[in-house]
Automatic annotation (TrEMBL):
InterPro entries: Ald_Fedxn_OxRdtase_dom2 (IPR013984), Ald_Fedxn_OxRdtase_dom3 (IPR013985), Ald_Fedxn_OxRdtase_N (IPR013983), Ald_Fedxn_OxRdtase_N_sf (IPR036503), OxRdtase_Ald_Fedxn_C (IPR001203), Tungsten_al_ferr_oxy-like_C (IPR036021), W-dependent_AOR (IPR051919)
GO molecular function, one term: oxidoreductase activity, acting on the aldehyde or oxo group of donors, iron-sulfur protein as acceptor
Domain of life: Bacteria
Domain Aldehyde ferredoxin oxidoreductase N-terminal: 1-211
Organism: Pseudodesulfovibrio alkaliphilus
SMART domains per the UniProt record, alphabetical: AFOR_N
Cofactor entry: tungstopterin; [4Fe-4S] cluster
Similarity comment: Belongs to the AOR/FOR family.
Coiled-coil stretches noted in the UniProt entry, renumbered to this chain: none
Keywords: 4Fe-4S, Iron, Iron-sulfur, Metal-binding, Oxidoreductase
Protein name: Aldehyde ferredoxin oxidoreductase
Length: 580
């Protein structure tokens, strides 16, 4: 993995492909690489859809190897949603295939002129860019069906749906899973719009003729990976909870803790949470059956397999198993308690290319504004369809929750730096509130998952209702996450490595054996700090100040039932999160 592929879509005579070594970016992968390139090459004050912005697609350092759970893909740019730096992370097959091809990053850059729509193929022969207007406005599933006719289904596709082509601020980049379904998404921050602004509809990554990457020290690698997998299987969350129930196991947990934001963050519990819980979902999936119904990996080589496949009542594939955050966003957040409706909304989001969190929160804000009623399932489906078709109302929804709130005169927009809050109320889970406020990415639970020590009692035990100690917890998790996002390992390995020192050591050993390094835990922490400093620097130059590291004021004013708490972590402590 020593090549960076650049595609200048604005070159005279048509897109120009160049290739270069890693140079000053050597040692970086995944988020470290996307953020390093964006920080060095994108003017922080540029328009996110303009020619100066770049889209960087980078697998992690372990991509293409046999290391378990290491096939995550990073996508970076200046975000159209937040106006700051963005790294969005996806599963799917593309990261491992890019790794096997020796590609550390693909950079889309330059000014796209005219109406040409590009299809890019990357394989052992090189990179081919073709104009293919027949792909215009195809939803992701139809696009993959069409591409399959010429490419087969042994490739991976990285694509945008109509939302990305229309350059909506809520638009994703889809990545195909092992069954060649475009069900995995770099979801947050509107990265699809940046790909759309470069005129690129799809990137086909063909690994034919490649092999898995060989470690520098194969024996050491094998032993370390075995110990790592054993540690993942030993831990209660990664060994049992996630494989059996998926991430939606959190619905009952958060609801019982009073931190489940229902009705557009109007209360901390949802009275029909049991109807959409992970336990109910797993029972339904078992009853309906079908391949990979309750346990499935988003990419091959994951030993946790937190995902699943959702079939309708007639046994037809509907979508991948909706994640907890999706079930919450389209479910309890909107007063909807029908899993089939949630699954349908998840499919529509994936098909058009919308982030399920941003879309669910946008609909919740629209419900608060009275556009439709809370609980109106048919109305919610209609709104996503409108967004997918680009009607005027749909374009408002596709611009994200903050825009919906502005258009309809709603104060209660649960966003930070323009990005919608996920499925944990910051008043009752204060550690995650600190992450929402201070993350370089806008409101993002994955940037520093303080739910672990606050609620799950993993990696510590901090009272979720108390402001004390939350800044320290969030800081440490944000640093660790930035480093993890650079390796390509899935964030969910954090449950095991936070609780089990030997599993953490085994993970670091797989990296060392793969690359012939001798990294220590301290080196990993330093990498995380380096990434956050770069990202903070970019955001500061883009105009962000400490006033942007705050939650909307109503979270400090309106008590949340049932605990009747407000967000009360002092501003001075929020200002210290990045003081390292
Ligand atoms: S744990 Fe889940 S999200 Fe993570 S790599 Fe495995 S299947 Fe994908």
């Amino acid at each position: 993995m020593d090549r960076i592929i650049r595609i200048d879509v604005g070159a005279p005579g048509g897109p120009r492909v160049t290739e270069e070594g890693l140079g000053k970016y050597a040692g970086f992968g995944g988020r470290a690489l996307t953020s390093a390139i964006v920080c060095a090459e994108v003017p922080p004050t540029c328009h996110p859809l303009g020619p100066e912005n770049k889209l960087v697609i980078a697998p992690g350092l372990m991509a293409g190897s046999a290391a378990s759970t290491s096939g995550r893909l990073s996508v970076g740019c200046k975000s159209p949603l937040t106006g700051g730096i963005k790294e969005a992370n996806s599963g799917g097959q593309a990261a491992h295939y890019l790794g096997r091809l020796g590609i550390a990053a693909i950079v889309l850059e330059g000014e796209h002129n005219g109406s040409d729509l590009y299809k890019i193929t990357v394989n052992t022969d090189g990179v081919k860019v073709e104009v293919d207007k027949s792909l215009a406005l195809l939803p992701n599933y139809a696009l993959c069906e069409k591409l399959k006719e010429t490419c087969g289904d042994s490739v991976a596709v990285i694509s945008i749906g109509p939302a990305g082509e229309r350059k909506m601020s809520n638009s994703t980049i889809a990545v195909t899973d092992p069954e060649f379904r475009p069900s995995r998404h770099a979801g947050r921050g509107g990265v699809g719009a940046v790909m759309g602004s470069k005129g690129v509809k799809a990137i086909i990554v063909d690994p034919a003729g490649t092999k898995m990457r060989k470690p520098v020290d194969p024996e050491k690698f094998k032993a370390a990976n075995r110990a790592f997998v054993e540690g993942l299987k030993r831990h209660g969350v990664t060994g049992q909870g996630l494989p059996v129930y998926g991430t939606n196991i959190l619905t009952n947990v958060l609801n019982e803790a009073g931190g489940y934001p229902a009705y557009n963050f109007g209360q901390g519990q949802f009275d029909r949470a049991a109807d959409i819980s992970g336990e109910t979902q797993a029972a339904l999936e078992d009853e309906r059956g079908g391949p990979g119904s309750s346990t499935h990996g988003c990419h091959r080589g994951c030993s946790i397999q937190c995902s699943g496949t959702y079939y309708d009542k007639d046994g037809n594939y509907l979508t991948k198993q909706p994640e907890y955050e999706t079930v919450w966003a389209h479910g309890g957040n909107c007063g909807i308690s029908d899993l089939d409706v949630v699954a349908k909304l998840d499919f529509l989001d994936d098909n058009y290319g919308f982030d399920t969190i941003e879309m669910g929160v946008s609909i919740g804000v629209a419900m608060e504004a009275g556009v439709i009623e809370f609980g109106d399932a048919e109305g919610a489906i209609r709104l996503v369809e409108e967004a997918g078709q680009g009607t005027p109302l749909g374009c408002i929804l596709g611009a994200g929750a903050a825009t919906v709130a502005r258009c309809f005169g709603v104060e209660r927009a649960p966003v930070v730096k323009g990005q919608a809050m996920p499925a944990y109320d910051p008043r009752a889970v204060k550690g995650i509130g600190v992450t929402y406020a201070t993350s370089t990415q806008g409101a993002d639970h994955t940037a520093g998952y303080a739910v672990a020590p606050n609620i799950l009692k993993v990696g510590g035990d901090i009272d979720p209702l108390s402001p004390e100690g939350q800044a320290d917890v969030s800081r440490n998790l944000q640093i660790a996450t930035a480093a993890l996002d650079s390796t390509g390992f899935c964030l969910f390995v954090a449950f095991a490595i936070l609780d089990q020192q030997d599993t953490f050591d085994a993970m670091v050993e797989t990296i060392n054996a793969m690359h012939g390094l001798s990294l220590t835990g301290d080196d990993v922490v330093e990498l995380g700090k380096t990434i956050l400093r770069m990202e903070r620097g970019f955001n500061a130059s883009a105009g962000f100040t400490k006033e942007h590291d705050r939650l909307p004021s109503y979270f400090t004013r309106e008590p949340l039932k049932p605990h009747n708490v407000v967000f009360d972590v002092p501003g001075e402590e929020l200002d210290q999160v990045h003081a390292f």
